[in-house]
């Protein structure tokens, strides 16, 4: 690797410098040599001996350094044998989320304060997350850095700043004979999964992303297993549960044109017996219209939605079985998608449960790799942090106490998102919402949402009055009641630029992503580890999509990107606050 090679350069340079100055010293001493010839001869011999010895030692070290570097280089860039690669993304999880969740778990399970999450035990380094268009990235640019190993603009789905497509590690893996999978808890057409199996200019083009993901893209079908939400993008406009603009039936195309097996319910998922039976591939499992509920709420709807760890387990076993007789392994991306949404909603009670579930899925993968006969690596990181989360909050002008209260988060049994939706459904269910008195609404909010849902029994009149006044903002207001009491701080409803953590099982080549890295370096590691030709895929994509580099349009869109993205984030917020959904 270039970095390794350059690391040896200073060693050489220093050496030349040392020997040069030594001969200068010799020359100086030479002028006074005649005065003490005997002693001087001894000194000179001793110096010659020491110099020779130093030279030999240095040469030895150099030879060893080159040998070691060469050895690890060849081992890394030309991996031999079958191997599996699992890449996990904790969308929107910054370092503070780990401290929050670790302490929460210690509190709720009565553990020692030395007790850590499984993630903590596999801490590897950190990643810098900026995109090509902004110091604060979005998930699309973040995932493009992982899938293509290159920086791009916010909103890009594996498209580069010059508007040409870039081949992804998943596409190259599929082409090389690997079996591939994507597992998420949000729309399968959302930015992170989309970046591995589709190419569009903007993340909002989810109808098109759905088409490409099932096999209608320039490369045909590249994914063998998909589990997630976002079913609404696969159903034709006009049918129940659709959010497509056109009347294309993507499920039908998937089944009839690309051979997908399709399941859309918990019953369908349970019939896979967590992968203990043979699972026919390709397998498309869409278990929610849009997002899965937060884990905090999902556990009360376990008969409707599988959990992230259940899906991860099933997917890994399916891919392992599918590759048992192959000389290639599998590539699987697993995303804890909604850690990000809990951050957008500034809801710490929802977030700790999302991170715990992600940690559980991470542990399953680690244990799988330990027991697997096939060599494999797990790399896990986040695309960015969300919310500017801090594990302290100053609520009053007086100097704050040094503490926060996990007990408040433990008391919540529903997310603010779920409770806000419940409120909106309640209002919508009334024949004449304008007849609802302030007293009735206040009582409903306190008795039906705040006390049983948030576990807060001391809501102030002004807190309740604020929600009554603007019910459309119920979600952030309810979340704030939790954060204030737990003394948890947030600086934004958007993303932040803080470096995020990288985790790994370790193993061949993973030293390449130790320390502080660019997110694009993580992407480069992925392709190198399974030794697949992403550049060939890029070439093919550029030809098939008939794209010419267009820097002009980059500037045009970069200027628009900000507005566009503000609109998108606004959309995400509305989805969190207003969405009156049937779930
Ligand atoms: C579905 O089609 C109708 C009628 O053409 C249109 O008004 C609506 O916006 C479409 N739905 C979506 C999500 O685009
Ligand atoms: C948790 O809820 C219980 C009963 O609902 C309440 O008595 C208690 O004060 C709450 N604890 C915290 C820390 O909010
Ligand atoms: Zn986000």
From TrEMBL:
<feature type="region of interest" description="Disordered">
    <location>
        <begin position="1"/>
        <end position="32"/>
    </location>
</feature>
<feature type="transmembrane region" description="Helical">
    <location>
        <begin position="48"/>
        <end position="68"/>
    </location>
</feature>
<keyword id="KW-0378">Hydrolase</keyword>
<keyword id="KW-1133">Transmembrane helix</keyword>
<feature type="binding site">
    <location>
        <position position="383"/>
    </location>
    <ligand>
        <name>Zn(2+)</name>
    </ligand>
</feature>
<feature type="binding site">
    <location>
        <position position="91"/>
    </location>
    <ligand>
        <name>Mg(2+)</name>
    </ligand>
</feature>
<keyword id="KW-0479">Metal-binding</keyword>
<keyword id="KW-0597">Phosphoprotein</keyword>
<dbReference type="InterPro" id="IPR001952">
    <property type="entry name" value="Alkaline_phosphatase"/>
</dbReference>
<dbReference type="GO" id="GO:0000329">
    <property type="term" value="C:fungal-type vacuole membrane"/>
</dbReference>
<dbReference type="GO" id="GO:0004035">
    <property type="term" value="F:alkaline phosphatase activity"/>
</dbReference>
<dbReference type="GO" id="GO:0046872">
    <property type="term" value="F:metal ion binding"/>
</dbReference>
<feature type="binding site">
    <location>
        <position position="344"/>
    </location>
    <ligand>
        <name>Mg(2+)</name>
    </ligand>
</feature>
<feature type="active site" description="Phosphoserine intermediate">
    <location>
        <position position="139"/>
    </location>
</feature>
<dbReference type="InterPro" id="IPR017850">
    <property type="entry name" value="Alkaline_phosphatase_core_sf"/>
</dbReference>
<dbReference type="Pfam" id="PF00245">
    <property type="entry name" value="Alk_phosphatase"/>
</dbReference>
<feature type="binding site">
    <location>
        <position position="91"/>
    </location>
    <ligand>
        <name>Zn(2+)</name>
    </ligand>
</feature>
<feature type="binding site">
    <location>
        <position position="335"/>
    </location>
    <ligand>
        <name>Mg(2+)</name>
    </ligand>
</feature>
<comment type="similarity">
    <text>Belongs to the alkaline phosphatase family.</text>
</comment>
<feature type="binding site">
    <location>
        <position position="340"/>
    </location>
    <ligand>
        <name>Zn(2+)</name>
    </ligand>
</feature>
<dbReference type="InterPro" id="IPR018299">
    <property type="entry name" value="Alkaline_phosphatase_AS"/>
</dbReference>
<keyword id="KW-0472">Membrane</keyword>
<keyword id="KW-0460">Magnesium</keyword>
<keyword id="KW-0812">Transmembrane</keyword>
<feature type="binding site">
    <location>
        <position position="495"/>
    </location>
    <ligand>
        <name>Zn(2+)</name>
    </ligand>
</feature>
<feature type="binding site">
    <location>
        <position position="384"/>
    </location>
    <ligand>
        <name>Zn(2+)</name>
    </ligand>
</feature>
<protein>
    <recommendedName>
        <fullName>Alkaline phosphatase</fullName>
        <ecNumber>3.1.3.1</ecNumber>
    </recommendedName>
</protein>
<feature type="binding site">
    <location>
        <position position="190"/>
    </location>
    <ligand>
        <name>Mg(2+)</name>
    </ligand>
</feature>
<feature type="binding site">
    <location>
        <position position="192"/>
    </location>
    <ligand>
        <name>Mg(2+)</name>
    </ligand>
</feature>
<keyword id="KW-0862">Zinc</keyword>
